[in-house]
Structure prediction request, 349 residues.
Amino acid sequence: MNKAACPLEEKARQSFAAGGGDPDLVRHAVRCPVCRDVLAVSDWMLRFRDLTLEQLEVEEPLPAPGALWDLARAGRTLDLKAARKALKPIEFWRKISWVIAAAGGSALVLLEFNKIKSFLASIPGFDAIAEAMRKTAEAGAASPVQQLVLPATLGLVGILLLILVTSFRRPASG
Amino acid sequence: MDSTSDPTPRDLFQRFYVRVAPLLRGYIRRVCGDPALADDIFQESFLRFLRTVEWGAPVHQQKAFIFKIASRLIIDNARRIRADPLDAAERREDPEAGRVAGHEALEPDMKSLFEALKPRDRSLLWLAYVEGYSHEEIAGMTGLNARSIRVLLFRLRGSFAASLRRKGYGLEERS
Prediction:
């Protein structure tokens, strides 16, 4: 006789997994070849599970639940990958705006050079500085490289000021 | 019940963790086989669980949900490793994995018998015979349909019981 299925198989399996307390099912399993297999597999699996859990408990303590909780919360509030992805278009257009601003500024300086020159001349004290620089150069006291130092320093200070002003961040709201 | 304040989600999670984490870790470790990968899957399962869990749901449902997450992760990893045999070979040769396996106190026969099964079969046997989930619940966890689970478990029960008999694992006296 090869009995392939038993209507109690599912019930027996779930009952054995839950602790196997139902004596009627155990008695049935002794007579029924299908449920006998279910009981054999169930017994073996539960023993295997117990040995596994005992071994893991001794050899490898579980991670602390608090650590997982904090990790999950951090992941929920700050997903760096997602944030980077979301900011990508903004970052791109920011770079474009820098290039346009630099090109526009240069073009403006070239086109309005004479006006800028006369404006600078109207600033009190500017003539004196320019005269002093010219005299120094004529006296040969400074090499061409040295003559570049003052404008270069002024330019550098200007750039540093610009960086300082543009990197100023408003405090985060909320 | 005379508690004045409701437990916070953190408290609920701690209770759930104490109850379910050892069982889930055992399941993942035995089905997955690779201790390092099993630890990764264990952690990832809880992180995903915490992202979407509804604390108002019954604990049985929450437990089934995290077993579902873990089962899907195991299946995904099994597929990925099978698709990249070099990676699988590297994992097997991982000295750390070997060290842990070397300390296995479990009966070697039991371990080898279970590891001889395919990961999907190990998962089905564990979910059905250890956790006692119904065919429908297992179908939801593994992404197969309930009828397929019924057929697969039917075959698996027959072949595994035969293997147990061959290895001399008989039924012990039940009190």
